[in-house]
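Hello,

I think I submitted the LM2 job twice by accident. Can you confirm which output corresponds to this input? Input:
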Amino acid sequence: MAATPSCIPWWEIYQPVTYDLTSRMGNEDQFKRMVRKCREAGVKVYVDALINHMTGQGNTSYGGVDYKPYNYPDYGPNDFHFKTGECPSSDGGIQDFNNKLQVFKCNLVGLEDLRTETDKVQGQLAAYLNKLIGYGVSGFRVDAAKHVGQDDLDAIYSRLHKTKDGVKPYWALEVFGGGPGILSPEAFTRSGDVLGLDAAKQIQAAFKSYQGSGNTGSLATLEVFGKGSGLTSSRKTMSFVTNHDTDRNAGEYLGHKDGSTFILANEWLLASGYGSPQVFSSFEWETRDDSPPANKNGRITDAECTSGAWTCDHRNRGIVAMVKWHNYVGNAKRANFYTDDANVVAFSKDSEGWAAFNNGTSAKEIRVQTGLPRGTYCDVIHDTNPGSPCARPTVVVNSTGLATVTVGAKDAVVAVGYVSSQHSHITTAASESASLSASLRCEARNVPARQHAKRRRDLLRRLWCWTNF
Ligand code: LM2
Ligand code: CA
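Support: Only one job matched these inputs. Its output is below.
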């Protein structure tokens, strides 16, 4: 849909009219080219897919398609629950979010709810998603998946083709917590991965806690995180610190406006190994509905990292380093957990790497077991020369694995499990490590086969919600 250029809210993109891929971000050809270029660079693209509903307002799309309520090129009144009388609420909207029929069959915030149980609607949706797969897309973040329901999600998924990598597409379902029984995130894990929305709340509670009263949170609580703290299992979760919705919900979630706390939380999540982590890069906004940077016609302008209009957190040195670290340590088990029971935690991943986080307001010196062999390791968070040789500082580990490290306020120190190259004479692991650190500058797919087994997870599943290259 299209509105007045000067005040077009970001959320317009959640109101589909057709599947022709023309929007304020560009057209179908540009999308195709973007996906191709990304794949060439080793970057997979995951699409935020709208399959539960169509729009709830407007009359002409960006592609110039005219439409009316419950009447679109691909759908007529018979394709909507409201029109067939299948939504059991007085005004056609979801009034009771704990009522299964309302949640599945009524209009979510006025958005016209599709009859996703029918062969026709499933066919249109599968054609749309398969078109994207054909362009090289690797999977989907399924918008409002809770309102589609497990049966229809499964039926649609079964119609999807394999991706260009020869596997079924990644399928991450948006299911807000709080619903009972079949409406709970856990109950959707039968159908795909689920978004870690409750996990993001726990992360906020640990890193920020009751800010109003001047408290700082307690990272010590994160000793237990995941299944053990009541969340969906790591294996079935797409985890994140924030997303485009929660970034605007400061009370319950961290967002980019939290600055160093937000960056630190992302670094911690990448280190923790919980879920398939996603890093959200935003644009600066003042009020909830603000448009992304756009021209006078409402077309979103190119994302760039110099003006400050786009936050570009995905280019933050610490975050980039942690993505590499995350891929490097793979599924290695957490060990040597340390906490001061307040706002400092540290742990190793077997003997692959070690990380420390300080969410406090002053630096802290800790002497801890790192689990690493003796050597001098690069602190990849602060290394100003990513790759090799490591530009200081370093973490010096003695023959019993102990190290004394000062972790700055709202900062992390992360030692990657290969020895920094200028000290490569120190341990026997050195020669391997030199080649590894070189390969880490490339994409994960370029790493030596021997290391590949460690990268069991295919990481940093970025949704390019805001990035219109
Ligand atoms: C989502 N997941 O299930 C998205 O993550 C979320 O961003 C979407 O809401 C929502 N579901 C629907 O896809 C956003 C935004 C809403 C906005 C909707 C539709 O948070 O505020 O609703 O997109 O664009 C807006 C108005 C609302 C109005 C509605 C329909 O805020 O008042 O409802 O449009 O015209 C009458
Ligand atoms: Ca629905």
